[in-house]
UniProtKB/TrEMBL annotation:
<dbReference type="InterPro" id="IPR017911">
    <property type="entry name" value="MacB-like_ATP-bd"/>
</dbReference>
<keyword id="KW-0067">ATP-binding</keyword>
<keyword id="KW-0813">Transport</keyword>
<feature type="domain" description="ABC transporter">
    <location>
        <begin position="4"/>
        <end position="233"/>
    </location>
</feature>
<dbReference type="InterPro" id="IPR015854">
    <property type="entry name" value="ABC_transpr_LolD-like"/>
</dbReference>
<dbReference type="InterPro" id="IPR017871">
    <property type="entry name" value="ABC_transporter-like_CS"/>
</dbReference>
<keyword id="KW-0547">Nucleotide-binding</keyword>
<protein>
    <submittedName>
        <fullName>ABC transporter ATP-binding protein</fullName>
    </submittedName>
</protein>
<dbReference type="Pfam" id="PF00005">
    <property type="entry name" value="ABC_tran"/>
</dbReference>
<dbReference type="GO" id="GO:0005524">
    <property type="term" value="F:ATP binding"/>
</dbReference>
<dbReference type="InterPro" id="IPR003439">
    <property type="entry name" value="ABC_transporter-like_ATP-bd"/>
</dbReference>
<dbReference type="InterPro" id="IPR027417">
    <property type="entry name" value="P-loop_NTPase"/>
</dbReference>
<dbReference type="InterPro" id="IPR003593">
    <property type="entry name" value="AAA+_ATPase"/>
</dbReference>
């Protein structure tokens, strides 16, 4: 069974009397430990698709199975529960609490998951170690560089061992060199077995993935294997 199975996934937004078909019958599977870049021009449906895959929203039509569970018609509270258990999010703008120390930022998903304090602390510290910030756990994000902030955000996304890691333009606010370092970290996470979907506008970033899905006008324009990834297997 694939981790993600979507069939005829459709999202229609109502704008007054107008219907916008932001996604128009998209189908694909994602197997465990795939590394996929989602590309496409502005307005092609990338955010809409990531919101559906990330269980932030439900489709208007079509089916979405996440680890064999049909999540297409869940109520908001059920959806939130699946989201907290299954999905790790990484954003362009990091979305950290700037004045709260790194370890507390990383512990947040574990609080939602009901993990007890001592275990939360040790798991968060260990995960910060994995992203190379073992010596920064007491720092606040506003005392860190952009690349370090994104590492904290990646630790927060990973701490609950999610089934999939969803990253929306994770290098969009970083200079080229720092962005490359973050892509090295994604490569490492991929090699450790994580399943990664990442939205990007940049070919240089997408070529780190092993598969590229291009959207256009709410449809899949192409779904191709990356022949020569930046880092070979
Ligand atoms: P991206 O994810 O590509 O950076 P956004 O998702 O912010 O961009 O927006 C992409 C397009 O969707 C834009 O044209 C924007 O105007 C439109 N859009 C986003 N959210 C809404 C909304 N709530 N209502 C109407 N249009 C929206
Ligand atoms: P992308 O992320 O590729 O830029 P989006 O998924 O944001 O694309 O948008 C796809 C289409 O859906 C666009 O035409 C956009 O204007 C529209 N759209 C996105 N969100 C909303 C919304 N909340 N309400 C109405 N239209 C929306």
């Amino acid at each position: 069974e694939p981790v993600i199975k979507v069939e005829d996934l459709t999202k229609i937004y109502q704008m007054g009397t107008q219907e916008v078909r932001a996604l128009d019958g998209v189908s694909f599977d994602v197997q465990e430990n795939e590394y996929i870049a989602i590309m496409g021009p502005s307005g092609s449906g990338k955010s809409t698709m990531m919101n559906l895959i990330g269980c932030l929203d439900t489709p208007s039509e079509g089916m979405y199975r996440l680890n064999s569970q049909d999540v297409s018609e869940l109520k908001d509270d059920e959806l939130a529960e699946v989201r907290n258990r299954e999905i790790g999010f990484v954003f362009q703008t990091f979305n950290l609490l700037p004045r709260t120390d790194c370890i507390s930022n990383v512990e947040l998903p574990l609080i939602y998951a009901g993990v007890k304090t001592s275990e939360r602390h040790s798991r968060a510290a260990k995960t910060l170690g994995r992203v190379g910030l073992g010596d920064r756990i007491d720092h606040r994000p506003n005392e860190l560089s952009g690349g370090q902030r994104q590492r904290v955000a990646i630790a927060r996304a990973l701490v609950n061992n999610p089934s999939i890691l969803l990253a929306d333009e994770p290098t969009g606010n970083l200079d080229t060199k720092t962005g490359e370092e973050i892509m090295m970290l994604f490569e490492e996470l991929y090699r450790m077995g994580n399943t990664i979907l990442l939205v990007t506008h940049e070919d240089e970033i997408a070529d780190h993935a092993r598969r590229i899905i291009r959207l256009r006008d709410g449809n899949i324009e192409s779904d191709t294997r990356v022949e020569n990834p930046v880092l070979e297997d």
